[in-house]
Amino acid sequence: MIENTFGMDIMPENEHDRLNALRRYKITGTPSEASFDGIAKLATQIFNAPIALLSLVDAESVYFKANIGMGTTKETNRGQSLCSLAILDKKVTVFEDTLKEDILLTNPNVIGDFGLRFYAGAPLITHDGFMIGSLCVIDKHPRVFTTADRQILEGLARTAMDQIELRSSSIDKIDELEGVNITMATMQQRLLELNDEMELANDELYRTNSQLNKSYDLTVLLNKNLKKSERRFRSFIDKAPIAFAILTGRELVIEVANDMMLKLWHKTEIILGKPLEQALPELQGQPYLGILDDVFTTGQNYIGDTAYARLESMGVLGDHYFDFTYEPLKNDEGETESIIVIANEVTERIKRNEHLEALNYQLEIALKAGELGSYNRDIRTGKMDCSETCKLNFGLTKNDRFDYDVLMQSIVPEHREMVYQKVQDAIQNKTTYHAEYLIRWPDGSLHWINASGLPKYDAEGNATHLIGVVADITKRKNYESQKDDFLGIASHELKTPVTGLKGTIQLLERFKDKTGSDIISRLIDQSAVNIKKIVTLVDDLLNMHRISEGQLHLEKTTFKASKILTSSCHNIISQGNHQVNITGDLDADIFADEQRLEQVLVNFVNNAVKYAPESREINITVEQLQDRIKITVKDQGEGINPAVQPFIFDRYYRANHEGKSYSGLGLGLYISAEIIKKHGGQIGVDSTVGLGSSFWFSIPLPTAEK
């Protein structure tokens, strides 16, 4: 009775005819009658599988041998064996991971102690199309089985079937010959006893001789088929996608070496038939000839992993690395006759690894020199792989736990949302993450951290990791604070004398035409220009100090957009060097601090003149959007490098303009950004190198603001 664990019909439609075919080949009892040690060993070597099976499937049972020639025949219920599935399809049946196959989840070979996780079986197909068994490889670990692997297994199965058919035909003829011999003996006895039946015996002998002649012709044909099968097998070896060779005798004569092995050795077919020591003289002094001799004498296989060897190519010895296997082939008495060599060159992989190790070492030195800590955060789990320097920057030792939760708890509450949002923006927009934030160490002290990183994505585009570096910038922040304090005090102290000096120069301007001296007039004009620059610098310093102290106050009123646009461009228009085009909704109402907003526009326009002097046109556009109003100042200058655009609104930041010198402290855009933020708006820049820049800001409409 068949015990079926697959939940499906495992009986072929022509089961009766298939069983007759199985009996016809006289192998219904056990596969031990057809020994295929060489094919099984080759299968395990080619696929690097621990077990190869040759199975035959009758009405209720499956008879099989594992690693043929190494044990007795086993029998199992047909409904529990995966081989019964292999005879349902003429193609190779493959289960790369049996635990992912619903029909196998109740099979005792899969869920039982044996733990079968991988199966690949090619059916044994007779010349008239019946599948009587299978040749398969199995493993207790999942694995990938490629199209090339399937073709190789099919080729081995065809070779096995060819030998089965040849053996079956030979057995039939041997039986027939034995019958003929019995008949001849009987007839000879009758000739001795019955002279009167001589003529009849002669006729019978004639017929017997005729049968013998036919048997001889058939034997010749079988030998031809056997040679054809051997040629097919040799062709299969030559074209196999692995480096394969057979070394015969203790002299290690190269009997077989396929194209890949010859290429690996840097040799041609001329070395076939020569001892390995003679064919590859460069192996002298290397361990491999000794290892091969040990394999031959002990009968134990040898596996080499990334083994180093020096081989000759074009008369030059080169360094190479290989993964290889030496497998002894034994006769019926267990004596080693030959050694199978299977090899794979991994030189490029080793060189790449060495190069990566060198790069990693250089990176490690660079990180230590820069006091940078590296981290690798798993976005899905929150776990972080951090360097020792990274943990030190957060006041931790190298043995302390440090994951995403610990990181967020160390950040002061007022900075956590900012850090979280910047990380999310980098992940969603696939951009660089950059943030500066304040943390509290376990000892209670406060420190500033500068963090950067890049998200890593899987094949489906899902963010999996955030990888980057962190630095302790507490000293820099303290220096900035001290500098801000100094500049604040200095600007306050300078304000009074500068204001007095400005008034004096304005008074002098009234009398310059009465001096009667062109030199004095020019000096007064130059002084007026310079005092204007000084006033601008002092105002920037005072504004920056107010922002740092949280004392930037707004006095909001409602006014038309055209009012600040005209006033902010008056100075540039009056000079006559640039054409200012103002378009859009000029009658739009704005609810804001008019003086501060004009300060932002003046800064945008002055920057367009300063950094894009060749741009004779400056375009200003007013757009009234759904809930805000947006003003854009566009020039046609050289544009801004995308790498510096994220930092252009930072305090004291000035973009590098090679070969050019510009005045200023780099505070204008920073102050402008703080003014817009104070209004609850947004500020930004859109720029392409060679196509100019567009600086813009947007603030809520009066209805939205109120």
TrEMBL record:
**Catalytic activity entry:** ATP + protein L-histidine = ADP + protein N-phospho-L-histidine
- Which EC numbers characterise this protein's activity in its record? 2.7.13.3
Q: Where does the Histidine kinase domain lie?
A: 489-703
Q: Does the keyword Phosphoprotein apply?
A: yes
The organism's superkingdom is given as: Bacteria
Q: Where, if anywhere, are coiled coils annotated?
A: 177-215
User: Pfam family of this protein, just one?
Assistant: PAS_4
**Where are the membrane-spanning stretches?**
none
* NCBIfam families in alphabetical order: sensory_box
Q: What PANTHER family does UniProt report for this protein, alphabetically?
A: PAC DOMAIN-CONTAINING PROTEIN, PHYTOCHROME-LIKE PROTEIN CPH1
Stated name of the protein: histidine kinase
Question: What is the originating organism of this protein?
Answer: Sphingobacterium siyangense
